[in-house]
Design a protein that fits this description.
The complex is a heterodimer of chains A (about 300) and B (about 290). Chain A is α/β, with parallel strands linked by helices. Chain A folds into two domains: about 50 residues, no CATH class; about 250 residues, 2-enoyl-CoA Hydratase, Chain A, domain 1, CATH 3.90.226.10. Helices cover about 40% and strands about 20% of the residues of chain A. Chain A has twelve helices and twelve strands. In chain A, strand 8, helix 5 and strand 9 form a beta-alpha-beta unit. In chain A, helix 5 packs parallel to helix 6. The longest helix of chain A has 20 residues. Chain B has a single domain, classed as 2-enoyl-CoA Hydratase, Chain A, domain 1 (Alpha-Beta Complex). In chain B, about 45% of the residues lie in helices and about 20% in strands. Chain B contains twelve helices and eleven strands. In chain B, the strands form two sheets. In chain B, strands 1, 2, 3, 4, 5, 6, 7 and 8 form an eight-stranded mixed beta sheet that branches. Chain B has a two-stranded antiparallel sheet with strand order 9-10. In chain B, helix 7 links the parallel strand 5 and strand 6. Classes of the chains: A alpha/beta (about 300), B alpha/beta (about 290). Chains A and B meet through strand 4, strand 5, helix 5, helix 6 and helix 7 of A and helix 5, helix 6, helix 7, helix 8 and helix 12 of B. Strand 4 of chain A pairs antiparallel with strand 11 of chain B.
Chain lengths: ~300, ~290
């Protein structure tokens, strides 16, 4: 898992012990790993937000010990019998599962955030570039459906390098499926918060990620429909610095806020409290939401 | 309208179909409208930013019915493609489509979309005007639109830019059209770092109409004349017109009500159509 963070973009051989020091991919300075972790993997020297793994994100956002994973058994099938460079897609998936210790490119479940019930799904770029195939599409859809049923606000933490090409048209159709599901969630009056992380591109941006009632993004995150390389290839022009960044999208009115990582949890807490005190939510979420959160807090249980 | 069970010996390969779908003489949206519609009044602009000639729309008369028609429009030559950008729509194009879908809903008109695009416009201008947002908002609208939608892939169905007007109660596909999540060249260059292996990628991704029919993604394959639609546009248009009429009639029979549509049933069935699409397993094996 650590390997992902330590991949050196410039291919410079690391001359220091891997587990103590880590080079910031942006400013190239060395950081003490323990300090970097204390800073939620934001470079203390330049403020660069390093990519987080899905489980790190869950730990960072949720109240300790409240996460209950849902739909963990869902895995992509291989509808096309896809083979790439002599490797079957099923074998590629098995390899990714072993490498990342994740069942698929998104994990989802429920928990509490500053004592407010929330359901969330987190995409992990380390799993096949967080591409959306049938499993990710089904998990996002079910999260939205469950939240519509139990009125638990939904937080989707997006990242994606694009489509899961190995699943062909099934991958494309997940855009339609997930959008229809978050539409129904909106109709049920349940808030959907969308958090865009580096990088969020392609079909994920152009489907559920763009439809949050509130859309937040981390500083410097690359966000767009077409990836920067595609744009440069097609237009034969170098993109200006900062094009397709979170700040660029804020400026163009596409997202609500750019939020430094350390401020995310408090802000999400404030938003959840505001919706909970709103007129529609005040009509009452089903009791089990509150009871479960209370139960989890009172006995401090560490759920699986 | 039904495919033969066994492939005919002379079936073109996936790559040959890609070439037919992109043939420079292939009929485009306006060609079909000219051949099929007694009336077509084009409506312009998204009322927010501009008008996009890469995606056209308007009121049309098809087989005696008034419909709202939308479609990407490729240019026939370089000069025309300067404005039509090979049918690659920008956010203002998708937002015009959104406006016209809502217009159709207000007057109870069925929506017919003709999909023919390599993909959504991949430029910085499109990005800064919210290309991803425009596409997502169209999908959201089509998921809940209270009039029937029949989509037909007539040439290239390129990724999210195609789906952005391609969700429907019925999805039809011309025999030599293609529909895929990424272009064969894009797939080959991402997976194998070699765009020249596009033919292989087209086979592997199963992008042809018979493939998509087999996977249950399209409801019907519309036959093309021998040699492809460009060899005999009149016949291609007649076949497309007959298929559209057949499916519009079926939707009218099922959801039509005096003065309108059974919207709850229509929207619920459309939701179910997309809800079931996915190839996954769910078991305790970890």
């Amino acid at each position: 898992m650590r390997r992902i963070f330590q991949r050196d973009r410039h291919g410079e051989p690391s001359s220091v012990p891997d587990d103590l020091w880590q080079r910031c991919p942006r400013c190239r300075q060395l950081n003490y790993v323990k300090e970097l972790e204390r800073q939620l993997k934001v470079c203390p020297k330049c403020g660069h937000h390093l990519r987080l793994r899905a489980r790190e994100r869950l730990t960072m956002l949720l109240d300790a010990g409240t996460f209950v994973e849902e739909h963990e058994a869902i895995r992509s099938a291989d509808p096309l019998g896809f083979v790439s460079a002599g490797q079957r897609y099923q074998d590629r998936l098995a390899e990714s599962r072993a490498e990342t210790d994740l069942p698929e490119a998104a994990i989802c479940g429920r928990g509490t955030l500053e004592d407010r019930p929330v359901r969330l799904a987190v995409c992990d770029f380390a799993f096949l570039g967080a591409s959306m195939g049938s499993a990710v599409g089904e998990k996002i859809t079910r999260c939205a459906e469950r939240s519509a049923a139990d009125k638990r606000p939904l937080l989707l933490v997006s990242a994606s390098g694009g489509a899961r090409m190995h699943e062909g048209i099934y991958s494309l159709m997940q855009m339609a499926k997930t959008v229809a599901a978050v539409q129904r969630l909106g109709a049920a009056g349940v808030p959907y918060l969308s958090l865009l992380t580096d990088p969020t591109t392609g079909g994920v941006t152009a489907s559920f990620a763009a439809l949050g009632d509130v859309i937040l993004a981390e500083p410097g995150a690359l966000i767009g429909f077409a990836g920067p390389r595609v744009i440069e290839q097609i237009t034969k022009q170098k993109l200006p610095a900062g094009a397709q960044s979170a700040e660029f999208l804020l400026q163009h009115g596409m997202i609500d806020r750019v939020v430094p990582r350390a401020e995310l949890r408090p802000l999400l807490g404030r938003l959840l409290r505001l919706y909970a005190a709103g007129r529609r939510a005040a009509l009452g979420p089903p009791a089990d939401c509150r009871q479960e959160a209370l139960a989890i807090r009172s006995n401090g249980a560490r759920l699986p | 309208m039904r495919l033969p069970l066994a492939p005919r010996p002379a079936e073109p390969s996936a790559w040959e179909r890609v070439q037919l779908a992109r043939h420079p003489q292939r009929p485009y949206t306006l060609d079909y409208l000219r051949l099929l519609c007694a009336e077509f009044v084009e409506l312009h602009g998204d009322r927010r930013y501009g008008d996009d000639p890469a995606l056209i729309g308007g009121l049309a008369s098809l087989d005696g019915r008034t419909i709202m028609v939308l479609g990407q429009q490729k240019g026939r030559d370089t000069q025309e493609n300067v404005v039509r950008r090979f049918g690659m729509a920008r956010p203002e194009g998708y937002r015009k489509a959104l406006r016209l879908m809502r217009h159709a809903e207000r007057f109870g008109l069925p929506v017919v979309t003709l999909v023919d695009t390599p993909g959504a416009d991949p430029t910085l201008q499109a990005e800064e005007r919210g290309q991803a947002w425009a596409i997502a908002e169209n999908l959201a609208e089509m998921a809940t639109l209270e009039v029937p939608i029949v989509a037909a892939i007539i040439g290239e169905g390129g990724s999210g830019g195609a789906l952005a007007i391609g969700m429907g109660d019925r999805v039809l596909m011309l025999e030599n059209a293609i529909y895929s999540v990424v272009s064969p060249e894009g797939c080959a260059s991402i997976l194998w770092k070699d765009a020249a292996r596009a033919a292989e990628a087209a086979e592997a991704m199963q992008v042809t109409a018979p493939d998509l029919w087999r996977h249950g993604i399209v409801d019907a394959v519309v036959p093309e004349p021998p040699g492809g639609a460009h060899a005999d546009p009149q016949t291609a248009a007649a076949n497309l017109g007959a298929a559209l009429a057949e499916h519009l009639s079926a939707l009218e029979a099922r959801y039509g009500q005096p003065g309108g549509w059974d919207a709850p049933a229509l929207v619920a069935d459309r939701f179910a159509r997309y809800r079931r699409i996915g190839a996954f397993v769910e078991d305790d094996f970890a």
